[in-house]
Amino acid sequence: EPTILDGRDQSGVIDGASHSILDGLTITRGRTRYGGGLCFYEVESATLSNCRIVDNYAYYSNLTLDSQRGIGGGLYCEDSSLMIVDCLIANNDAIDSGGGICCVGSPAPTLLRCTISNNLNHQSHYAGIILSRGGGIYCFRCSPSILQCTLHGNSTPQSGGGLFGYESSPLIEDCTISANEAQNGGGMAFNAECTPAISKSRILRNKASTNGGGLLTYRSSAPVISNCLFEGNAAMKDGGASYSESECKSTFIHCDLIQNEALGEGGGLLSIRTSNLVIKNSILWNRGDEIVSDSVSVSGSCVQGGWPGDGNVSVYPKFASPEGGDYHLQSGSVCIDSATVIPGYEEDIEGFSRLNEKGRADMGAYESPDGFSPEVNSFNPARFYVSADADLGGDGLAWETAYRSVDQAILESSSGTHEIWV
Fold it and tell me: Domain residue spans in the chain?
């Protein structure tokens, strides 16, 4: 049976030591001012594996702006080399920031195959400033490697539901960041000269009550996002997929931005206040304005409604099954073999090579099999069927194989003039 270390809501559970190995533990009901479950301070080469860090709490007393208290509900890590592998960090709570994890300084931790879920922050204040950030992970001048992880269902009343970075440049690769919530940056938020590298990841159905459903960046931050899927993120104000302001530069390479929405401007991307957008070899097919920006460069991309730039197209991309969340391209998609291969980005979101005999790559996050052709299919139906009782995965060409939503029929019919029967 697993060993359970229970703080009984009275104290922190573990203070980590250098060269320690913690394996197979359940760490629960810790309560302290930082690192409710575990605290690592200036630790060398510690390993945490196959552990459950659940239901811990970080509180504060006599809060000052520089106190760094009430942070890291599940785990606090400062200036420590820590490997966290195959761990569950869930249902932890911080009165201030980092409901699941707070990491500070250098060296930074590495997280591999971890799940950070359902952690939260409260709305703490100091001198009228809302401090709460990073419902799942809070990075303060720290650049962790986050690999093959899931950040799901975390929340904060301020910025960065899944993850928040301040003067931090994490490596985020092959992750799923989904169903997180915040006022700004439902999925992730970065502030103050952050340069995160986000690749081969899925940013899905995150929500911001103000700006940046999937991602928010500000104050001279410059994320590079490659081979990623942004799908179904929502902002109650601006920037459904991504929002950036104050001299930021956001670069999207081989990304799919699909069915994101904002009640204000920029269902896809919004960039303001001398911020720049660079979009290459990507697909933007959202609800509302695709791009709102003072300065933007778009090339080799498929943009609903069209956008000026070399190699851009505006025909519906022909996704395999948007209703079922499958954004691979069908054979016959105009996006196949329509982009140039960019050095350093030769693999798609699933790790498949983009290199082929034609020397061309597909637009978007998913590369198609070599046998797929960009030619338009000879059979172009004029009528699509929609039924709420239909099975998932239908092609919409008959009642027996109807789509389940009008949205899917509208997406498919956008490449021409067609009928939709409901």
Answer: 3-324, 381-422
Tell me the residue type at 81.
S
What is the CATH number assigned to the segment(s) 3-324?
2.160.20
47 CB-contact burial (10 Å; exposed 0-12 / middle 13-18 / buried 19+): middle
pLDDT tens column, 337-368:
999 999 999 999 999 999 988 899 999 999 99
Confidence of residue 416 (pLDDT cuts 50, 70, 90): low
Select from 120, 78, 124, 123 the least CA-distant residue to 99: 120
Owner of token pair 């996006």: 335
Torsion angle of the four alpha carbons 131, 135, 138, 143, in this order, in degrees rounded to the nearest 10? -140
pLDDT tens per residue, range 259-289: 999 999 999 999 999 999 999 999 999 999 9
Distance (Å, rounded) from C-alpha 218 to C-alpha 227?
Answer: 22
Proportion of the chain in helix, strand, coil states, percent, rounded to 5: 5, 40, 55
Q: Give, as one character, the DSSP assignment of residue 71.
A: B
Tally Cβ neighbours within 10 Å of residue 262.
29
Is pLDDT above 60 for 133? yes
CB 328 within 8 A of CB 338: no
At a CB cut-off of 8 Å and minimum separation 6, what does 343 contact? none
Spatial contact of 84 and 115, defined as CB atoms under 8 Å apart: no
How far from 392 is each of 222, 326, 386, 399, 421, CA to CA, in Å? 39, 11, 11, 13, 17
Report the distance separating Cα 59 and Cα 342, nearest Å: 48
**What digits encode the pLDDT tens for the residues 220-234?**
999 999 999 999 999
Amino acid letter at 185?
G
Around 82, how many Cα atoms within 13 Å sit in the side-chain half-sphere?
A: 33
Distance CA 422, CA 409 (A): 10
Residue 127 has pLDDT above 50, yes or no: no
Residue 410: phi, psi to the nearest 5? -65, -45
Closest CA to 200 of 367, 368, 374: 367
Q: Which pLDDT score, from 0 to 100, does residue 150 have?
A: 99
Cβ 57 vs Cβ 36: under 8 Å: yes
Handedness of CA 298, 169, 217, 266 (dihedral sign): positive
The distance in angstroms from the start CA to the end CA of the chain is: 55
Q: Please answer whether residues 211 and 184 qualify as being in contact, where contact means their C-beta atoms are separated by less than 8 angstroms.
A: yes
* Other Cβ atoms closer than 10 A to 340: 13
Distance of CA 297 to the CA centre of its chain: 22
C-beta atoms surrounding 23 within 10 Å: 12
